[in-house]
Amino acid sequence: MTRYFIKLLFQMILIVLCVSFLSFLLVYLAKGDPAESILNAQGVPYTKELLELKRAEMGLYDSFILQYLRWLGNILHGNFGISYRSGGPVWDQLAFYFPNTLYLALHILLVTLAISLPLSIFSAYHIGSRLDQFLMSVCAFLNAIPSFVIGIFLMLVFSVKLRWFPIQSTANEFGLILPICTIALTMSTRYIPQLRTAIIDELQSPAVEGARGRGISEGRILLKDVLYNTLPFILTLVSLSLGSLLGGVAIIEYLFSWPGIGKMLIAVVVNRDYPLVQGAVLVITLGVVIVNFTTQALITLLNPKARLSQQNQSLFLKRQASPKRYGG
Fold this sequence. Notes:
This protein is mainly alpha-helical. It has 14 helices and no strands. The protein has helices at residues 2-29, 34-42, 48-58, 64-76, 90-125, 130-143, 147-161, 177-203, 206-213, 218-246, 250-255, 261-271, 274-302, 304-321. α7 crosses α8, α10 runs antiparallel to α13 and α13 packs across α14 (304-321).
């Protein structure tokens, strides 16, 4: 078990390093001069000599590997660089935008589970009924519609026509309802069919049939057997969704003017603020990797089969490593 967690941790570090290298390489190959961008942002009328002096100050004449190692060393010391446009530390902007995206993502996941779990349980218990078929048809229809189209529709109905909610998400405390509902509806159309299939598999398992034969109540079977055994699958769905949400639901954040990291990335890519792009990609990657690592650890602890598999793997490795003894 310990060896498995160490392996996961090593994979997490390796992924972060690979992504940091690729992001730095793409910025290095991108068009534009960082020194010129900084001087333009500062409004400094520069000459060729001043430009060369600024390049030397930023270490742009060094080799690519040396620049990458210097940047990575600064990252490890908490220095993410200076924004070309604002002139302020990159970390200050990341520390403002990323928690906003995390706040939005967690609320979206809670609403998605609140919608998907009851409907998937109802559909699994009434498999083949008209309501089940209707629910699956609605999920298939809504799943084919892009999320921003649903967001525009909700905005037109509830903000423009009925005026129940503000268009901008930061207007008041009700501003987050529409962006949360937009993504939650889109994600629920994917969650419900998958959760329905997983719950049906558990309901048809021998363990559930045996529990029913012993006279155990259906509610206890649902909680103790069905939902508990489905929990690793739910955690996997949540981790995958949270990883994509941490990447920034850029269109929705931009549509509802939510100050998240997705909306920020749209602005900095247009303005070619490369230090912010590098910092944002690195923070998003780290967040996704931490979520996946935590999910894998929880699934391993909750799932007896996963624990048994890890124990058998450890025993197999020990037997392979031990010297063979031959009897005489």
